[in-house]
């Protein structure tokens, strides 16, 4: 039976599935923002450092994230995080919760496949500004499902680290997905759009 | 002839070549920092925003980088960047050049291959603090070779954007590559180590 499959078609299908659906057109910036976030398992978070001698300097760090279980069209758009006070960036956030989060299709197979350089706008990336907040008990279930479904090893992370569920509370969104500069998307547009 | 190759061995060899050499042991934090930077083609750069209404807030963005042509043991450790004043983060840097740069093995095939979550310290990531500066004419040749060898499309980027070569001037380095918290590496240790 196997000979009846076209390997190219199978590879393409797998790639589309892996990418969580087809990429939106670049004029649809709100959908693009949702698409890129949902297809990224992690992002870079920038905080204002609270460290001795570096207070107020920018500080970039890496965190796993999830806006919902994997698969196309299933993301909530909310970047959930699994944090501990032992993390240096979380200590920054306790002093000043302002933060910025960036995710890029360079993190997925998409840009390599299309031979787009990571700094080429066609290798879309999204910048969020806002703050990081602990989620309340009613939202913790959603956050847990979103995170643990995509980051199964989180369940076994050391209990004495006092992990908690948090979210990036989005106040500003910039989309770089085409030539001509950054596009601004409002949180309302972002959350109301069909992904 | 092809049957005489062991596909697994070939795949491993390709992976090692792609990864630019073998990963250093985690106790060798300076070498790990050099290894991760050299194996990443891009990073997330955090600046202090100069935007109206967001002045002084952290701002995370994505930039291509290179510390030297691809291949194992050939990196200089210096993160070179190709920038334009049209970039919003570069406008931030013109007001305040303090910045932070992070690179992660999550950007390479390494963590997926070993099934390490991006937030697992074994999926090593490095955080640099410092500032971004334009390189002088004598260093521009090095920067150009480092960047254009790994980002060939840069050569064709629009001339009217007034691109210039810059580097991330490293003042602090943190390495997260094992359990037990961040390790501090000095720029001296970092630049003096054999990669």
Question: Can you give a write-up of this model?
Answer:
The structure is a homodimer of 195-residue chains. With 195 residues, the first copy, chain A, is an alpha+beta fold. Chain A has one domain (29-192): Pnp Oxidase, Chain A. Chain A contains six helices and seven strands. In chain A, strands 1, 2, 3, 4, 5, 6 and 7 form a seven-stranded antiparallel sheet that branches. The longest helix of chain A has 14 residues, at 137-150. The N and C termini of chain A lie far apart (36 Å). Chains A, B: It comes from Strigops habroptila (Kakapo). Chains A, B: Its main location: secreted. Chains A, B: Residues 1-22 form the signal peptide.
Keywords:
195 residues, alpha+beta, Pnp Oxidase, Chain A, globular, disordered N terminus, homodimer
